[in-house]
Amino acid sequence: MTAVSLQSAAAPAGLNEDALEAAQRAERNWMMAICSPSLILVGIIIFVPVGWLFWLSLFDAQGALTAGNYLRLLEQPSYFKTLMMTFKVSVIVTVVCLALGYPLAYLLSQLPRRTAGILMISVILPFWTSVLVRTYAWLVILQRRGLVNDWLMSLGIIDEPLQLAHNFTGVIVGMSHVMLPFLVLPLYASMKAIDRDYLRAGLNLGASPTKTFWQVFFPLSLPGLSAGVVLTFVLCLGFFVTPALMGGGNVFMWSMRIEQTSRLYSNWGAASAMGVVLLVLTLGILWAFYKLLGTRNLLARGLR
Amino acid sequence: MKAVDRSPPVTIRGIAKRYGNTTVLHGFDLDVNPGEFVTLLGPSGSGKTTILMILAGFVRPNAGSIKVGEEEIVAMPPHKRNVGMVFQNYALFPHMDVFQNVAFPLRQRGVGAAEIASRVREALGLVQLGEYAERRVDQLSGGQRQRVALARAIVFEPRILLMDEPLSALDKKLRERMQIEIRHLHERLGMTTIYVTHDQREAITMSDRVAVMNAGRIAQLDTPKGLYARPRTRFVAEFIGESNFLPVELDGAAVKFGGQPLRMAETIGPSAPKQWLVIRPEKLSILNGHADPTLNQFQGRVREVVYQGESFICYVTLADGSEISVRNYSRGDALTRLPEAGQPIRLGLSPEDVVLVPEDSVA
Amino acid sequence: MSDGLQIPISHRNRLWLYLLCGIVMLLLVAPSLIIIPMSFSDSEFLEFPPPAWSLRWYQRFLESVEWRDAAVVSLKAAIATMCLATPLGTAAAYALHAGQFRFATLVQTILAVPLIIPVILIGIGDFFLYAWLGMNNTIFGLVLAHTVLAIPLVSLTVASGLKSYDMNQEMVARSLGASRLKAFLVITVPQIRFSIVSGALFAFITSFDEAVIALFISGGENSTLTRRMFNALRDQVDPTIASISTFLVCLSILMLLLAQFFGQRRSH
Questions:
Q1: A112 — contact with chain B (CB < 8 Å)?
Q2: pLDDT at B352
Q3: What is the pLDDT of residues B18-46, one digit of tens each?
Q4: Which of A248, B216, C121, C214 has the fewest beta carbons closer than 10 A?
Q5: pTM (2 decimals)?
Q6: Which residue from C246, C242, C232 is spatially nearest to C43, judged by alpha carbons?
Q7: Using CA of residue A134, residue A140, residue A143, residue A146, what is the dihedral sign?
Q8: In this structure, is residue A126 part of a structural domain?
Q9: What is the CATH number of domain B242-358?
């Protein structure tokens, strides 16, 4: 056999290359095909309507193209107040969840698998329970003639029932209850991934248990922590059910205003504009976090 | 870094550890001399890592005492023990760079910044990583991480050094190089070192003495040469190096194999009636023509020959049906004229190489 | 072989942690569970412990045509959602796991969108769309929307099940002559069935519990249970809702137990 140059220009570049390429493409197409029903549904149910909302926000009640819907948001101070209230509630709820959720996630991650699994049910059960039911439960517990007030009064601690529901406090309590699993679960997952040997090394090298926690464990838990915090905050921004039922007219969140504008006033232009603002805020925060995570990725990779 | 010339001895007495109904360690005793390099060698489940964890303070024993020098440390929390430890997966802090990792123990001890800098560089220099202080952990190779872990473990001049299979994640060539480097480091620093491994070759290469462990007990504590040449139990003989076992009978003062008395260099007199003759494959010579009459001789037939590059191994069936393997290294024309399957063969064993072990139980 | 916490920190030093976490866990489950005994309370204010026990709130629920119909609507929608979302979500998870195709990341992102977009926007957006298509207040429209919410959850559940599954088994089956689909159905599905079932249960409960979208697009005869509850709660705290809530909580607990039960039996 004569020596064949690897770069022979006359012969095809490889045996069966076209057929193999075709088979590869067919496989890829099949994979896309079985994803497509899901993708189409998501397209119809989410992308089209949201796109439409964006479209609607550009038109006024008479159908003329306008930036008025957005300008109104800037001009009328009530919108700013609503936005501030939304941020205020979201920040406070996130902080509460952080304060309660970090220790819980930490404890669960340090316990043996089986015990942690059983205790985890306390975090997962709320997840599987309707927001409506949980909000209602808090209403019943916190209302003027509810559990908390009855017990406090019977113990003689207070004379008059405290106003705990249908106000700011009620909203914070209710929303924290709903959001806590969203913070605990990703945080737990990332804490679980922290190798025990790091902590042992810290102790062995002379750091007391407390110092080891702050200098070794806590920094390594930050990626999971920030993910949980961002998720919680973003969910709070758009949250509707709990503030609507627990607010008692005192707490007015952005999502409630969207609902009111569309339902009561049928002002679709305004409602859509508000919806777009919410969407931009949500996506913006997530995107900013994703960008930040890029530099943090080195740390996350180091965990492996 | 000055040599730790007064590295203390370690005295371990009666360490027992139970998990529920399972006993992992049965009253473990060990004396480590000052500056000695002792290896705990054994299969997984033998308890060797548990001992190390107890020494470091991460596992509390049910009973026992551990003295470093005169100080009793068995109840001391791990962060006060002042022992250096290298973990199996290095456990380098990923959120710190190399310098910060090595500086960590010094910071805990309140050492000043200038002194930290000089001691860290010295430690990194000892492991030949002087240029790597600014690197991040994920930029290092496995071997480099291993050396940073070493530097971190010695920078604060601990009294003793513990190593938990630190080379098991490295490939063969790198492992062999690191074994020698660790040995050199030990000679330079003179720190009492306790090393854990399941690799018998590694133990033999690096250690002053080796404690072979089996099921929570020490089967034999000896120098590498002692373990290899004079194993005291079947387990040790099987674990260290390659070995053949031939059944022998005691007949009065004589030891017989296949009816023939064996010539032995010493009168080893184990009391149990059933004994095994341990023969290392490379101790057998293939005899041609007249042989030295002082050698023990075995007749047999070649079953299979396997060429392995630097040596060949020959599987022989002896007259009484026992199977035995012979390993010959390339010397002269030994490899150009390999025995053939089916041919009769005579093997010789010097009296010095006759080793007997009792029917197995942990010594 | 685990020595408990694996790091020698005494339980005494951690007492405050145990206490705090105990309180938090209690606060997480107590509200949902306390509704159950309270729903049997005789008085309008649902005292606890109830001075008198009665089933009047359950009677009110069962005697009311609207509540019964709403329950049926929710049930129908949830079952349909489960049946639709499970195969779609499983298919997507499989494709992302097994196939190597260029747009994998894009598909993953698109499938994650329903979890990221504020639900209220989906609600009013769909209201518009359905108004134009004439699909408002239909179970069909509701099911489509709920399916979109459930698909990412099913997909995530099945994906985690696939991670601990050895795909080589499928390839072995194919080398022995089975077509790709057959190999998937006969070899893979039985082994990841526990993840699939968990995903299905998750889809069911997601649809049944869903409140926001239902508020906008389910109405009239096809109002869901959650929509009626929301409207009732807006006006005043009607104690009938306690009995409905009990029913929902028990349903959640049941679904969770089933999912845990199936999830535990995962073979490694």
A1: no
A2: 86
A3: 988 899 999 899 999 999 999 999 999 89
A4: A248
A5: 0.83
A6: C242
A7: negative
A8: yes
A9: 2.40.50.140
